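pinned: reference chain
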Amino acid sequence: MKINREIALEGAVLKAVSPLPSERVQRLIGPLSTKAMSLWRLKRLNCKKEKITRKDGSAFRVCIFRGKKAEGKTVGVLWLHGGGYAIAGPEMVCLSFPRHLINNCNCVVVAPDYTLSTIKPYPAALEDAYLTLEWLKENRERLGIDYEKIAVGGESAGGGLTAALCLYARDKGDGCIGFQMPLYPMLDDRVTETSYNNTAPVWNTKANKAAWRIYLGDSVMNNSAPKYAAPARETDFSHLPPAVSVIGTAEPFYAETKAFFERLGEQGTEAQLREFEGAYHAFDMLAPYAKISREANAFLLEKYEEFSEKYIK
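pinned: its structure tokens
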């Protein structure tokens, strides 16, 4: 597998030290990771934290980031963090694409600590994501958001959850999502051309299989897995929000992401996907100073502004 030379060194180091291919390790570090991240204050990103209460009385935190650009009207963005559904927390925004939105745009980014699969499997994460969407709509004026339509995005598992949330909201008749940004999304529990025997850095076949087993349990890789868990299983791609994303050709999610965007386009949705030759999973986060990463983030920022102008009303 050929890795882009700009990010090859970082990839080799990450591949050597990553524990993620182990299901046991994912289960162990998942709950610990979100607790550790909850201690991050992120004042430099204008972060404050609140709680959303579920119907059963339990609650989860949301990180609210206010963009540093004051000109123009404020766009609301719901961002869902990555981590294979199993690990990490909303504070990961400080490493992922939304940091560019916060530094360059007039926006409010809301990132929830949705339930990790290592704590409770599907559909807990989707339920929390939709509850956050409802909460964001209800608190729009208090948060200083000027539009009824919002953008939804996420990286990796958060990208898959973004696609699932868009399907779920469409099927419930909720049209509040203006556009979506599912970045290198985790969409398909089934074997694809690029998720089979993938040995790339950061996220590979072993890590992917482990994460899907934790998220879906006995439903993984059989016909009982629902489309809201694995959005690539959807057959009706009509009336979904416009989409923009990036994907590396070396990573497991390349084939499923490309197919997903092709089907969106075939059924009349604007869908723009930019491919990066030899890039592995989350390359923009893990090698942020590489030219290829800067190009990816510049493309996404340009398209965010373009799609906001066209689809956020």
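why pinned: The longest helix spans residues 291-311. The chain has ten helices and eight strands.
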